[in-house]
Design a protein that fits this description.
Elements lengths: L2 H17 L2 H14 L4 H13 L3 H14 L4 H13 L3 H14 L4 H13 L3 H14 L1 H6 L2 H11 L3 H14 L4 H13 L3 H14 L4 H13 L3 H14 L4 H13 L3 H14 L5 H12 L3 H14 L4 H13 L3 H14 L4 H13 L3 H14 L4 H14 L6 H10 L5 H13 L3 H14 L5 H12 L3 H13 L13 H4 L1 H14 L1
């Protein structure tokens, strides 16, 4: 065997590999191994070519052979560790990087490699320790090898955004035109509640690389968080022109459309996102909310079912599904869900309130009162809980003189809340101040024209004002909006107060309900 020939084969093989001519590189390394089967470097070099061709198993076999021939071959351990990392055999990768470091304790590449594996395992604190050590040993080499950017990613994963931002800035000093780093810095600003600063970095990235879809998506997300939805949608549109396969962009654009109350467009985008990536589970929740806005309650139930299929104890999904059952007039199913939520979260006031409404739909006023009053006790800041407790109380008996004061106190918790207007209106009505009572009701309807509560009490007030046709229309509207018939009980007061109206309008209404 001629040593010069062996060196020539290895040298030519390396040159071919660097130029991307892998077939000729393999031929040269094969010949080097034939000439000297004990040449560890030839196996190592051939392994690198196999890895470049994505033939990882052949690469691993060659690294194994190189290490068998030369057990102290630090670079072979490092490169095999890197290969194990690529095939997601993370514990083996850590072992190889650790062996390389045992042989050469100041090997910056192995420290960074081991840090990357720990990141893949979501062991971010361990990753940071490795990046710290690499930077301490050789800041320039470590920085140029990506240690600052990698450590920044680890800090971001731990939600230590100030540290992440510092590292990304340091990394960009070394590589100022790195579009990925600019995006990571932007993401750290966004995640730390500074989307306006994120936009500056995305703008720079787009100047450097104008056709990068993920940068448009990221800038769009920053605009969305700033409630600049038109600008956000324009960026999401641009991202999808560049790459129409990006499911996350459809989802993000859907969120902006949803914020603009353009629910059909939001629904179309959520459908597109899930068609491209059914594993984007967070889309199901937002799509369910849109279905609810569109009064497609059965479809919303189906989405909550999907959420619960992969997260069966999610109390908010169970609660939301129960609420959809309420809207579908399926109170028994709703109660099952609210019972389960209360088992998981015994202090969740809204679950008691909604279970109270379910009992209302079963005409069980006693259970409804128990649940709604419990919800109000748990969270007196919820005006709707206190208001519903008072309404049910009025269904069980005519109000006592203290009802007016209680209603006014409930409204003070959030004076501009829809139900606060109802509380004040009914308090004024009980005080015979009917015109002011009606003005409060009209304010509630302006806030939310789809809720049934204001229409019922508008009907009661209009009866007191002698505006009978308006009263009938308002009461009919309340029932059309799915008001629980059990809450019609205050109409019985009209048997005494307005017997003519009671006979002509209330009796037929009660018979139909």
């Amino acid at each position: 065997m001629n040593i010069d020939d062996l060196v020539d084969h290895n040298k030519r093989g390396a040159e071919y590999a660097l130029s991307g001519n892998y077939s000729r590189a393999l031929a040269e390394f094969n010949q080097a191994i034939i000439d000297n089967p004990r040449d560890a470097s030839a196996y190592h070099n051939r392994a690198l070519v196999h890895r470049s061709l994505n033939d990882y198993q052949s690469a691993l076999r060659d690294f194994e052979q190189a290490i068998t021939i030369q057990p102290s071959y630090t670079m072979a351990y490092y490169q095999r560790g890197l290969t194990y990392y690529l095939v997601k055999e993370h514990r083996r990768a850590i072992k190889d990087f650790s062996t390389a470091l045992a042989l050469q304790p100041n090997d910056v590449q192995s420290l960074i490699g081991r840090g990357l594996v720990y990141m893949a395992l979501e062991e971010h604190e361990q990753a940071i320790l490795n990046f710290n050590r690499a930077i301490t040993i050789d800041p320039d080499h470590a920085g140029n090898t990506g240690a600052y950017g990698d450590r920044g990613q680890a800090y971001a994963a731990l939600k230590k955004f100030a540290e992440a931002i510092d590292d990304f800035i340091q990394a960009l000093i070394l590589k100022p035109e790195d579009v990925v780093l600019l995006n990571r810095l932007g993401a750290a600003y966004t995640d730390s509640g500074q989307p306006e600063r994120a936009i500056e970095n995305y703008n720079t990235a787009l100047l450097l690389s104008p056709d990068t879809a993920f940068t448009y998506n990221n800038r769009g997300e920053a605009y969305r968080l700033l409630h600049m939805h038109r600008e956000a949608i324009a960026d999401f549109d641009r991202a999808l022109i560049l790459d129409p396969t990006l499911a996350i962009v459809y989802y993000n654009r859907g969120l902006s459309y949803q914020s603009l109350k353009q629910f059909q467009q939001a629904l179309a985008d959520y459908n597109q996102a899930l068609a491209r990536d059914p594993s984007l589970h967070m889309v199901y929740n937002d799509r369910a909310v849109v279905y609810c806005q569109l009064k497609m309650y059965r479809e919303a139930v189906a989405d909550y079912d999907r959420i619960l299929a992969y997260e069966p104890d999610d109390p908010l999904a169970i609660f939301s599904r129960g609420t959809m059952y309420l809207y579908l007039n399926e109170p028994e199913e709703a109660i099952k869900d609210f019972n389960e939520v209360i088992d998981i979260l015994p202090g969740f006031a809204c679950a008691y309130n909604n279970r109270g409404e379910a009992y209302l739909r079963l005409r069980d006023l006693a259970q409804a009162y128990t649940n709604c009053s419990r919800s109000w006790q748990l969270d007196p800041t919820h005006v709707d809980h206190g208001w519903m407790t008072m309404w049910i109380d009025m269904c069980l008996d005519r109000p006592d003189p203290e009802m007016i004061e209680r209603l006014e106190q409930i409204a003070q918790a959030d004076p501009q809340d829809y139900d606060a207007f109802l509380c004040r209106s009914v308090a004024l009505w009980l005080s015979s101040n009917h015109e002011r009572a009606l003005a409060e009701i009209e304010s509630a309807i302006t806030l939310d024209a789809d809720k049934w509560g204001a229409y019922f009490w508008k009907g009661m007030i209009c009866v007191a004002l002698g505006r009978d046709q308006e009263a009938v229309a308002a009461l009919e509207h309340a029932l059309a909006e799915n008001m629980p018939p059990a809450l019609l009980a205050p109409l019985e007061w009209l048997k005494h107060d307005r017997p003519d109206f009671y006979v002509e309008h209330v009796i037929p209404l009660l018979q139909r309900s």
